[in-house]
Design a protein that fits this description.
- Two copies of one chain form a homodimer.
- Chain A is of the alpha/beta class.
- Helices cover 46% and strands 22% of the residues of chain A.
- Chain A is built from twelve helices and ten strands.
- In chain A, strands 1, 2, 3, 4, 5, 6, 7, 8, 9 and 10 form a ten-stranded mixed β-sheet that branches.
- In chain A, helix 5 links the parallel strand 9 and strand 10.
- The longest helix of chain A has 21 residues.
- The interface between A and B is medium-sized, with 25 and 25 residues.
């Protein structure tokens, strides 16, 4: 019997990966907010460079209490909405179930582990350019692979666990390329190396990844921020390879011009993930005794803009 | 016989101080650009909290070559327009004359000294909230005093010179409160302590001084930047008193909500004084071996925005 999946949040990420699991025949249940009725009537549509597809019949819910308990619960909310998790997870997670955190930044796995005991909590890092373009409609622009790591309460590497293997087997059946990593913390920090400069600067400079890389000042700034994040990761016990900043800046040259989701959130006056992507890493670095002045400045600038943006 | 004055640039600063000298009976000649004809017909109007006044008959020129040589030449251009100085100064400065640099940031006095030899070059730091609100029209919001220091080619303190005394005597007659300072470098750096955070953040955060101070993140950021600028000043041989950052942040609370001229320039898609206020101090700090990551980041952010702003 194949595992059942609950997808908490049917935005770009939840919609894209949930639709792929649905297409492969998994029993998938989606929690949605504004477009639940639309999806119930019209299904999900994924517009993708890998080929468009739609899921005509979708199990969709507006309230977690209506959902069946599932073997695997994938959290695909914006981290700014994680305050709803105590009202969601106890209703959908099976005993000895698995929770996947498909979010950026730091801190969400700890929150989940405090809400639900006796559960495997995995971080799933999504390397995908996708956005929600309308009700029940996801546009997939590039990439799509994920890396998987298991949360440990002491922050030490878990190694490759059987739960991770189960999930990546399911993902493989659904056409989702995944890689199991022994150290979730290292994986999360490595992703932050990209996210901190490009998400943050996309808002501060009102620029795509392409524009950031094309100007020598912002390119250097992205690189310098990456070095700070690498230093912070190392101080937190997760050494990244030396040439990561160079590699990531150059890699970004090969991406299509991309507005990170933080930029879309800002423009739409939605809350930005300032604490998970900037605040939590900053505090982790400070606790580890590392100076990260650019990360701190970016955090403060974004915290200011986020507050103003929601006042208006 | 009283000294004659040439005012190079009839914006907020040149218009405000030039009008005060005119009102006191000095022989003043203005170089203006777009509103030269308007001023010739209508004069200058200063709307001020200290009392409105106008100068009905103004000697105004569009070309420096038409101007008479003056005893004192006051440069009140945006520093971004300093590339015109080699075509201006040789025509208006008298032999053994005085040049006043009424600009923010670092580097202008060196430029002037290279263009004109045998001239006293003084820096005049204007502590004034004023803006140009229309042709020939200046709005004075608050303050207005200046500090005066003499440029020396080796960067060492000049002490109080007789030229400084002459100028401050003239200013006093015109109702301009001035203070002579023995170390121009220290005065310039001290002003940068305010200008770097408030001018820079007003653009990055689209905020007035009041909004910057009201949010704990941006207030802290302003303070942290001030500390960097103080460290850079010290490394360049100009020690500022220890409590300068606290004092300046608190002092700014007492100011009227103010959009620095850099913010007005940005909004009007005019060039911003990125190099004089950020680039030159940054390079001075780096040459002195000081790390100023927030100043550097702000410089790079503003350089990016300035370039984009002028492309559009």
């Amino acid at each position: 019997v194949s595992r059942s999946y609950a997808i908490i949040g049917t935005g770009a990420i939840g919609g894209f990966y949930g639709a792929q699991l649905s297409r492969a025949g998994f029993d998938v249940h989606f929690l949605a907010r504004s477009d639940a009725d639309f999806i119930r009537s019209n299904g999900l549509f994924v517009e993708s460079t890998d080929g468009n597809f739609n899921i005509p019949h979708v199990n969709v819910y507006q309230n977690a209490r209506s959902m069946p308990r599932c073997d695997v619960v994938a959290i695909a909310l914006k981290s700014t909405a994680n305050n709803i998790l105590p009202d969601v997870l106890p209703w959908v997670v099976k005993k000895n179930g698995v929770v996947l955190v498909l979010q950026n930044g730091l801190g969400a796995e700890e929150e989940v582990a405090q809400i639900i005991k006796d559960t495997s909590v995995l971080g799933v890092l999504c390397f995908v350019c996708a956005s929600k373009t309308g009700p029940g409609r996801i546009k997939h622009l590039a990439f799509g692979h994920v890396t998987i790591g298991q949360f440990t309460s002491n922050g030490r590497p878990s190694g490759i666990t059987s739960v991770m293997r189960d999930i990546s087997t399911d993902f493989s059946k659904a056409g989702i390329v995944s890689e199991n990593l022994p150290d979730l913390g290292a994986a999360r920090w490595k992703k932050l190396v990209w996210n901190v400069p490009y998400s943050g600067l996309s808002v501060m400079l009102s620029a795509t990844t392409e524009a950031i890389n094309a100007n020598p000042h912002s390119r250097q700034l992205a690189h310098d921020m990456m070095r700070e994040v690498c230093m912070a990761a190392a101080a937190c016990g997760h050494s990244l390879e030396q040439p990561v900043p160079d590699m990531m800046v150059n890699y970004t040259d090969t991406m299509p011009p991309y507005a990170p989701s933080m930029k879309l959130d800002y423009d739409a006056k939605r809350p930005m993930e300032v604490e998970s992507i900037f605040g939590n890493p900053l505090r982790a670095a400070q606790n580890a005794g590392v100076q990260v002045p650019r990360l701190e400045m970016l955090y403060r600038e974004l915290a200011f803009l986020d507050k103003m943006n929601r006042k208006q």
